[in-house]
Amino acid sequence: MKNIKDYQHKKILVLGLAKSGVSAASLLHHLGAFVTVNDKEPLEKNPDAQGLLQDGIKVICGSHPIELLDEGFELIVKNPGIPYSNPLVSGAIQRGIPVITEVELAYKISEAEIVAITGTNGKTTTTTLIYEILKADERKNPLIAGNIGTVASSVAQKATEMNQMVIELSSFQLMGIQEFRPHIAIITNIYEAHLDYHGTREEYAKAKANITKNQTKNDFLIVNDDQSELKDLVSFSKAKIIPFSTTRYIENGCSLYDGEVVFLGESIISTSDIVLPGEHNLENILSAVAAVKLMGVSNEAIRKVLTTFKGVKHRTQFVMELEGRKFYNDSKATNILAASSALKAFQQPIILLAGGLDRGNGFAELVPSLKNVKALITFGQTAEKIEEAGRAAGIESIKRVDNVEKAVPVAYELSSPGDVILLSPACASWDQYKSFEIRGDIFIDAVHKLV
Fold first, then answer.
1. Has 146 been labeled as part of a binding site?
2. Per-residue pLDDT averaged across 266-273, rounded?
3. Is 125 annotated as a binding-site member?
4. Where does ATP bind (predicted)?
5. 121 labelled binding-site residue
């Protein structure tokens, strides 16, 4: 890593812990900053804070006292999940104190080339595909980081010029960048999401577009050419635009032609050889192929991965087959579009498990995708709203349960051989579970208990 002096002797507040806050605090302490950590969890229940305290870092726990802003901090590193409406954050902005997220720190210290991926859907699959393809090419040494589960500022500390950092980024993280500049950036797509955090679709989209705000003519921006809104959104970018499309051939980008994935006119792989299911995954594949081809990866490495890669955990993940029923875990489907994409991937009758955090939206947009759903099991805050969509779609068998664990045996009872039992909630998990990963793991455990 680069041993930078940018933060030496500066008073810096790390607001909110979890993995990103712990990494940021430890890194800044190592770089010579005077670090204060503030987390709402009480110290006695906060092992992360206790560990930082033992390392000699000042820790304030139990609340977010507004008086902290009087201590003369020169920078705040904010946990991405803390909204900008938080009084400490909004107060800092009013006072002119910069507020960043830890991905900015990762960029400042990284010696590796950075490939950054964002978008509403497909981020994790695209990130994983790029990482796996780079790994399959023996000339590359990729590292994977970001919103996919490994904190970028931790990974960046290990990165050298021989590495390539592949980072998945959320809109929350991208709102907190200053100089962050990936050599290759990808925006998979833009749809309405996280309005409870951003307020409007326009603000959400603007946060996503931050991924390219510091790019230059020597960098690349890979964008979904099938979305006119996205093309307009990034029209300010100085990077070289590499479009991709699943609907038409693009000579200067990555697209489909005559059953082949084609990049800059070169045929890479036949779509019939790709094992990753679902039309929506073709978008992810095209953007990933564009990225690795720009990095000089061999077609052999691309084919090796795309002929074996079956998906990422919690993303239309095949769990098992039991008595002719196939179980799929798509817990990452935290919005309507993602759930619709998963539903369209199957031709068989579906028993759908759905529900979760109520963000105020309705589910009328889900109705056209429910044509193959023979039974609907709902749970969580949005159970009633999703049931309304189910009735509008003509689903006769609708059951409500307390949670995902209880939904699985009910779904099995309603199913027949040849059916698909699909967890694709169309909602975030936070009303009942700390993360979509925990929700998905509970689903998997419940499925295995049927045996």
1. no
2. 97
3. yes
4. 119-125
5. yes
